[in-house]
# Entry
Amino acid sequence: MFSCNYKKLRLSFNEFHDLVKKDMPNHGEFCLIELKDGSYTGGEWWPNSSNAKSKTVQGKFIRGTGDSIGAEEVAKWHSLDRYDLSASLESDEFNWINLGVEGEGIYSVQFKDFKSFKDGDFPKKERYCLLIMTDGGLGAGRWSPLRNGGGTFIYAPALAQHSQDKVWAWTELSPDECSLMEEEREREKAHEEELNKNPSTDPELFKYGTDIGVYYDKALEKLREKYYWASLAQMKKRPVWQIVPLHGKYVFGLVNDAFFGEKTITEWTDGKTADEFIDFLCKDAEETVQRSNPEEKFKFGLDVEVYLEKAFESVKKDYRWITREMMDKHYRYKIKKIDGDWEYVKAFGKDKKYYLFDQPSAEKFIENVEYDYQNAALQENSVVKEYQPPFGAVDLCGWGLERYVFSKLQSGDYKVYVQAGDRVTGGGREFFITPYCFEAKTYGEFLDRYLEIVPGGSFGLHKQDLLPNKELKEFLGY
# Structure
């Protein structure tokens, strides 16, 4: 690594250009920028195509995604791309490096107070910094800490960044709106922490004390007057409330994890007394408790095989090739106790971990298992032949039809895949064409039944589009 002492180093920038006089950088050139208010930042120059005809320079210096400086704010710029400091940094005798010729009448700016990550020094969050890279080049970027420690310097859209291991030394440039907002947020955070060291307690709001469990117990007691099966576990399927300090006082709040381990608190403001909060807990949990009636939820008992067999027999009527062994490769289910309540749980593929599969009734559980079995059955039936009917421009409520593919399966059955999208998003769905459709005696009657599954109004192709297609007719066996 370089021998130069970065703590004593000064960089003198002596080749500034005046943007006001239409002396512009090359397109894409990364620059040190002096703004008209005397502050300094950096950015990559992106001119507007209208510059040749305009009396003023049009364009912007890009610093990151949604982060740029307009030309109208800039007084001068100095290239950072055109220099390699390696030769100077390899000597411990240098502590002053001129970028350009220094002299009388030449506009110069000096930067010092360089720091290094190896000393454990880090920039302030969101501060734009001047960088000396490990290859001797110059750069700039906005410091963004990473959750697991360290950070990167963002300098262009799509989070283009200089990783800290590529930076030999850095020094902070002028505060800007982003960094000032972050510093204000840090001050507010410190003030909030100070306020919350000794929070006050509203006697009406917390007349039962500051143990949230007491309030849940009282709400549960009221719920059981109407729903004998109610439990704390059922109530806590909803967002769980806590008693936490906020702005110097205790409140009922929802605590949510935010970025970098910080938390946000949503305060309960629907009432002013403890009993009103207990009533709120009851109302908030009532729908979830209703859905947990064990007489409805486990109508056929606690043996999950009873439910799975019902789902399997229902699906097998159309998906005639399926076996339970096929299904177990994709999904597994159990009924087990979680926090004292019986629940449906589900595992995927070879995953040994089971996840809560919350269903309000036996019928709803069976219905969802049927859907899983149908998807798994199609995955287990390989495609042997495909046909894509021709179609022109088809608008689906702002999306365009992209693919419409019929597939013949190894079992002799058929499915269809439909895909649509716009410039930024899209999606696709797969449909099994049930044997009932093929019981039709004519191709026209088949289409009538088929379009009940894949309606033209929703998926693009109508009967009048498909009926004249002789190739599709033959592909489907008519």
Q: What stands out?
A: The CA atoms of residues 132 and 138 lie 5 Å apart. Residues 296-379 form one domain.
